[in-house]
Design goal:
This protein is mainly α and 260 residues long. It contains eleven helices and no strands.
Length: 260
């Protein structure tokens, strides 16, 4: 099966998923479900490409495990958060900024997330079609980085969840564990996941295309929906506590806190 055919199938799958989730969001009145669906869509495509990719069986199995395991963990974490909290402040701000006709605008937003899933899953697609009967250095390195990234992101999420669950921390800023060294360690390790996936696919035919995925993810995290939106909300809700945290703590890459 040609790569373009696989890409078309993958895009159809994730945009259909997003349309159904858009219908669900109308009932729940909570656009945060798009985050859960986005994470789930990546895993669905990774497993789909692993099943129909026609490359070396071991490589396809690793593709399915890497994408599927990451997806189950993140989608499950986000689903628990969405179920227990009101709509994320980012989407409340988007809704307020859009004014009228928000249902249709959110439809296009949800469908775009489906297309984005298909684009970001291209490394899985390319690796799943690689028929080389042995794994190469890029693939071993990719798996190693992926393991580090998955553990790091899991630890960061668990530390934040524990902080939020403690009533004594209400109104405070999490600066313990990994959050002492980065204001967004979850985002950093999330980006590292995509570096690992691109590295894994790099040795496959056309694998160099995969470097666009961590580049896109870095742009979104640093400039669009990640850090800017999150920090604007934290400054509004935490004020000087978060401003002081900003002054002493690295924004993205974990590093030692600045004195004072």
């Amino acid at each position: 099966m040609h790569s373009w055919t696989l890409l078309a199938i993958g895009t159809a799958v994730t945009t259909t998923m997003m349309f159904l989730v858009w219908l669900l969001h109308l009932k729940l009145r909570n656009a945060s479900v798009v985050d859960v669906a986005w994470a789930a869509g990546i895993g669905v495509l990774a497993v789909l490409y692993a099943l129909i990719g026609q490359g070396f069986w071991l490589r396809r199995a690793i593709v399915g495990v890497m994408g599927g395991l990451w997806s189950v963990r993140l989608a499950g974490y986000l689903a628990r958060r969405v179920a227990g909290e009101p709509e994320d402040a980012r989407y409340q701000a988007i809704r307020a900024g859009w004014g009228g006709n928000t249902k249709l605008k959110f439809l296009f937003f949800f469908l775009f997330q489906g297309v984005l899933d298909a684009v970001l899953a291209v490394p899985f697609l390319l690796a799943s079609r690689n028929a080389a009967p042995e794994l190469g250095a890029f693939e071993y390195a990719g798996v190693a980085v992926w393991l580090i990234a998955l553990v790091g992101e899991s630890v960061a999420d668990a530390q934040l969840r524990a902080f939020r669950a403690n009533p004594a921390n209400r109104g405070g800023v999490c600066d313990a564990g990994l959050w002492r060294y980065s204001r967004h360690p979850n985002y950093f390790f999330e980006w590292l996941v995509w570096c690992a996936v691109a590295l894994f696919a790099f040795g496959s035919p056309w694998g160099w295309v995969s470097v666009a995925c961590p580049a896109m993810m870095l742009y979104f995290l640093l400039k669009v929906t990640g850090i800017p939106a999150t920090e604007s909300h934290m400054l509004r809700s935490r004020g000087e506590k978060f401003a002081a945290y900003q002054r002493r703590t690295s924004a993205f890459v974990p590093w030692w806190p600045r004195a004072g």
